[in-house]
Every structure is written in structure tokens, then in C-alpha cells.
DNA sequence: GCTAACTCGTACAGCGGTGTTCGAGATAGT
DNA sequence: ACTATCTCGAACACCGCTGTACGAGTTAGC
């Protein structure tokens, strides 16, 4: 069910409960049995998306279970992070979008944290080692990179970029933006 | 009226006709007298926002009436473009957001064009003169810069960045991303 | 003073989404 | 075979937004 919700939210973040139910091949009432309100459904979809991205990052080895990146090459670690998480992020960004429309901003940020944390960590480490610019705020860098990921996901969803091209453009842009 | 609509859409892109009317200090029916449907209202707000941004760019001299940038220093022209248009863009981005939810993507892009065109032009000139990187697609660069502007506007609306800091972070980021 | 244009609040119908209820059918465990 | 659980479609009331209709009040111009 969450599968269908994620896929549907990617194409239409305002999808109704009935649409999700139909896409999942399930009755609307049945769906209400699992998620009492639409808000709960969106929340669950967001959590699922975040969790998938987190697992994708873990199995790729881009980050450890503790959220720490391999030491030594912050820029390389950042590139690995993007390469590994990109497809999961692209699939989940619709759910995030849907969540932003119903949930308070603070909560979506909080639930979003597990996937943002590795990014912030690797950027912070990069700054400490001098590989990442330190003339801009860390929070801004995180926001800027997130925005670029979001933009790449949209371009890809619109068919303007294919998977490989999107990955290449995104990593090249992020590295240029972040490099000291 | 459009004033109120723009201000309101900036804080809530899903604002209803009744909310806009109240914010404008006007009866809902009166508002319907000027804009037959909500869609028309959003369209008008978008056009107003785009037009303001265009005028802001013109009076600042960042672009001429024909949309052409002063020749010679593409990167400087880009920075001037951002500096001049930034506040107008920040005020109007809510209207764009609202428009994206009601109007077909093609139309909002089309109406958005007058303000995107100078950006595309200056980037294209920069590529021709070797000041702007040419290993990424022009469309992607435009999208990436737009995404950064959007991100800066959101950070500012959320109070995480003040006006000056936002301008500085934005221009520094864009230049780093775009430079050859 | 009269008209024309504009405004207003109230009230209405229509629509679509949400969340609930009901009765009935299918499935699996014992 | 019996029961508990899960499922289903259909129907319901509720709510908020949209767009329209009506009647009355205000303002400006002549």
C-alpha cells in the first residue's frame, strides 16, 4: 500500500485517499482501517520514504549505521552519498511534498532528519578538513543541496533528464557549490 | 487587491478566495466581480508578480528593455541580476507556488518566461565567452539557479536568513555553481 | 435629485473530499 | 464446521470551497 502511495504522491502530491486506494488495488474503507486519517497515511508514506533512503545509504556503505561517513575524503563521500541516495530520494520526494502540505513544517523537518543528518555531517567534516567552503552557513549549504536534489528530481520526473544525466548534473553542481 | 493576494500567497499558496478578500479588506463577492474565478485571480497574481520582477530588473539596469544584459562581464551581470531581482523574486515566489497548483505546468512556465529569459540569456552569453561552465545543460543550469533562488526565498520567509545574508549566500552559491 | 456604477452581507446550490456505518462476503486458524 | 479477522461496495452525514443570486447601501457625476 505504501508502495502505491509513494508512487502516486511522486506524480501528484495532492492525491486523495480514494486515488491511493485505487492505485493500491484496495478498497477505500480497508485503507482507512490501516490509517485512521489521511494525515496518518501521509505521515506513514513519509516515514517509509525516509527509511528507504536511509537503508539505501547504509547498504551502499556511503554512511555507517551510526550515520557517520567514511573519513579521509569528504568530497568523495558527498558524491557517494548523492550517487547512492539519489534514486531513493527521487522516489520519496513526492511524499515529502505531500507531507509539506498537511503536516506542520517542524514535524516534516523532524521526520526528514535521518536522511538530512548524513548530509550535514559530511559537510561539517568537509569544512573541518578545509575541503568545503566555510564562508557560508552550514544550514544554508544543507538547504541549497536539498534544493538541488529536489530540482533534479523534478527535472527527471518531467522527463527533461534521464537517470544518468540527472545524477551527473546533480553531483557536478553540488560539488561546485560546496567546494572550498 | 493583488497586493494582498501576493502577500498572502507568499505565506500560504493555498489561500482561498475568502481569505484573499479578507486580507484585501474587500467583500468576497466584490473580488469575484474583478476575477470571475479563483483561477483567474491566481493567474493575475502571477502576472503581477512577474511584471514587478521584470520592472525591478529594468530600473536597476541589470537588463535592458529588450532583455539583453550589458556585455563584457557575464558573471558580474549575473550577480547584478540576482541582487536586483532578489526581493521581487522573493515576494513573488508564493504566487508562482500557488499557480503551480492550479494551472498546467506549461502555462505557468510560459508566464514565468519574462523573468527567466534574462537569466537564460546571461548564462548563454557566459558560456559563449567561456566564463560559465559548458559541461552541463543550459536548461539544467537555469533550473538549478531557480531552485537556489527558491530555497533562499524559503529560508528568508522562515526567518533563518535575513535579507543581506540571503543575498550574499545566494549570489556566492550561484556563482560557484555556474563558474567555468 | 437622479442615475449609474460600485460596493456590501447574506444566502443559496453544487461539488468533492473526509471519515463513518452497515451488511455481506472471503479467508485462515482450530 | 465454526469462528475471528480481514476484506469489500454502497451509502451516509459533515465540512469547506466555489460560484451565483438577491436586495440594499454607498459614492460620484450631471
Main sheet specs of chain A: none
Largest interface: A-B, 28 and 28 residues
Our estimate of the beta-strand percent of chain A is under 5%
Q: Tell me roughly what share of residues is in helical segments of chain A.
A: over 70%
Query: What Rg of chain A is obtained from the alpha carbons, in whole angstroms?
Result: 17 Å
For the record, give the distance between the C-alpha atoms at the N and C termini of chain A, rounded to a whole number: 44 Å
Structural class of chain A: mainly alpha
- What does the average pLDDT of chain A come to? 89
Number of strands of chain A: 0
Apparent shape of chain A: elongated
Number of helices of chain A: 8
Return residue spans of chain A where pLDDT drops below 50 for at least 5 consecutive residues. Answer: none
Elements of chain A, N to C (H/E)? HHHHHHHH
By oligomeric state, this entry counts as homodimer
Question: Any overview of this molecule?
Answer:
Two copies of one chain form a homodimer. With 180 residues, the first copy, chain A, is mainly alpha-helical. Chain A is 76% helix and 0% strand. Chain A is built from eight helices and no strands. Chain A has helices at residues 2-11, 17-23, 28-34, 38-60, 74-102, 105-128, 138-157, 163-178. In chain A, helix 5 packs antiparallel against helix 6 and helix 6 packs across helix 7. The longest helix of chain A is centred in the middle third of the chain and has 29 residues, at 74-102. The radius of gyration of chain A is 17 Å and the shape is elongated. Chain A starts with a helix and ends with a helix. The model of chain A has no long low-confidence stretch (mean pLDDT 89). Chain A binds chain B through residues 14, 101, 105, 133, 135-137, 139-140, 143-144, 146-148, 150-151, 154-155, 158, 160-161, 165, 169, 172-173, 176-177, 179, and chain B through 14, 101, 105, 133, 135-137, 139-140, 143-144, 146-148, 150-151, 154-155, 158, 160-161, 165, 169, 172-173, 176-177, 179. The first copy, chain A, binds a DNA duplex (30 and 30 nucleotides) through helix 3.
